[in-house]
């Protein structure tokens, strides 16, 4: 299907905050309570419409690597948006946000739009982090903020789409260099984009292959930019 833009998103945050469930809810509109810890990277993709334009969202899920904090520049490269997720029922996941943010800022394009997400809003009785605290953190660090529930789907659609709206506005304002960020990614990964959540396909070899391929295309396209 033809699209006007392709935005790469990454989802970051501590293990167990609901990153994979958020992705599954957004791409497949379903909640899978027990999610396998997969080593490697999982992809999801979905088409959305903004301002009458078809936009393909290509979403990378860290799938288990997060506990090693070994997320490298290649994971962040070309990302136009990041969903930084914590769990409102686990304060430690909120306390780790600063580290995640430093990581993201260090490895990504400075214009990357970051959406802070307080997930598991359905578990109100177990809440440890107030909504106001999330709002304050976002304000302080220039992020957008939403509380979501991957279980009930509350605000999930909005979180992904509002991030895209913000990226789209940056493109209109000429802040984003589409040639270097958005188009680059579409060249490299369009052939790999299949939601792999429901299968047990070992994606890590595929990921390695794609990184090598990405490097090749990256160098090949350098003289153009
Ligand atoms: N109640 C509730 N549980 C959730 C929600 N999102 C994820 N979970 C649960 O939290 C656990 C971790 O989710 P997962 O997506 O694997 O986290 P990840 O490690 O960040 O990818 C799983 O047992 C999920 O069922 C949510 O919004 N509400
Ligand atoms: Mg996961």
From TrEMBL:
<keyword id="KW-0931">ER-Golgi transport</keyword>
<protein>
    <submittedName>
        <fullName>Ras-related protein Rab-2A</fullName>
    </submittedName>
</protein>
<dbReference type="InterPro" id="IPR027417">
    <property type="entry name" value="P-loop_NTPase"/>
</dbReference>
<dbReference type="GO" id="GO:0003924">
    <property type="term" value="F:GTPase activity"/>
</dbReference>
<keyword id="KW-0813">Transport</keyword>
<dbReference type="Pfam" id="PF00071">
    <property type="entry name" value="Ras"/>
</dbReference>
<keyword id="KW-0547">Nucleotide-binding</keyword>
<keyword id="KW-0653">Protein transport</keyword>
<keyword id="KW-0342">GTP-binding</keyword>
<dbReference type="GO" id="GO:0016192">
    <property type="term" value="P:vesicle-mediated transport"/>
</dbReference>
<dbReference type="GO" id="GO:0015031">
    <property type="term" value="P:protein transport"/>
</dbReference>
<dbReference type="InterPro" id="IPR005225">
    <property type="entry name" value="Small_GTP-bd"/>
</dbReference>
<dbReference type="InterPro" id="IPR001806">
    <property type="entry name" value="Small_GTPase"/>
</dbReference>
<dbReference type="GO" id="GO:0005789">
    <property type="term" value="C:endoplasmic reticulum membrane"/>
</dbReference>
<dbReference type="GO" id="GO:0000139">
    <property type="term" value="C:Golgi membrane"/>
</dbReference>
<keyword id="KW-0472">Membrane</keyword>
<dbReference type="GO" id="GO:0001669">
    <property type="term" value="C:acrosomal vesicle"/>
</dbReference>
<dbReference type="GO" id="GO:0005525">
    <property type="term" value="F:GTP binding"/>
</dbReference>
<keyword id="KW-0333">Golgi apparatus</keyword>
<comment type="similarity">
    <text>Belongs to the small GTPase superfamily. Rab family.</text>
</comment>
<dbReference type="InterPro" id="IPR050209">
    <property type="entry name" value="Rab_GTPases_membrane_traffic"/>
</dbReference>
<keyword id="KW-0449">Lipoprotein</keyword>
<keyword id="KW-0636">Prenylation</keyword>
């Amino acid at each position: 299907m033809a699209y006007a833009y392709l935005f790469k998103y990454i989802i970051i945050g501590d293990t167990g905050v609901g990153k994979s469930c958020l992705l599954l809810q957004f791409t497949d509109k379903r909640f899978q309570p027990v999610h396998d810890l997969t080593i490697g990277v999982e992809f999801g993709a979905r088409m959305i419409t903004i301002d009458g334009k078809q936009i393909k969202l290509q979403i990378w899920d860290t799938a288990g690597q997060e506990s090693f904090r070994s997320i490298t520049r290649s994971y962040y490269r070309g990302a136009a948006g990041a969903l930084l997720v914590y769990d409102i029922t686990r304060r430690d996941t909120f306390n780790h946000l600063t580290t995640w943010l430093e990581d993201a800022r260090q490895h990504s394009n400075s214009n990357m739009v970051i959406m802070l997400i307080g997930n598991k809003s359905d578990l109100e009785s177990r809440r440890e982090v107030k909504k106001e605290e999330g709002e304050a953190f976002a304000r302080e660090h220039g992020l957008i903020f939403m509380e979501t529930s991957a279980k009930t789907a509350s605000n999930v659609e909005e979180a992904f789409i509002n991030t895209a709206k913000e990226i789209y506005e940056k493109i209109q304002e000429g802040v984003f260099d589409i040639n270097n960020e958005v188009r680059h990614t579409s060249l490299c990964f369009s052939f790999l984009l299949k939601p792999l959540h429901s299968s047990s396909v070992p994606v890590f070899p595929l990921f390695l292959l794609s990184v090598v391929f990405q490097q090749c295309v990256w160098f090949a396209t350098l003289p153009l930019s």
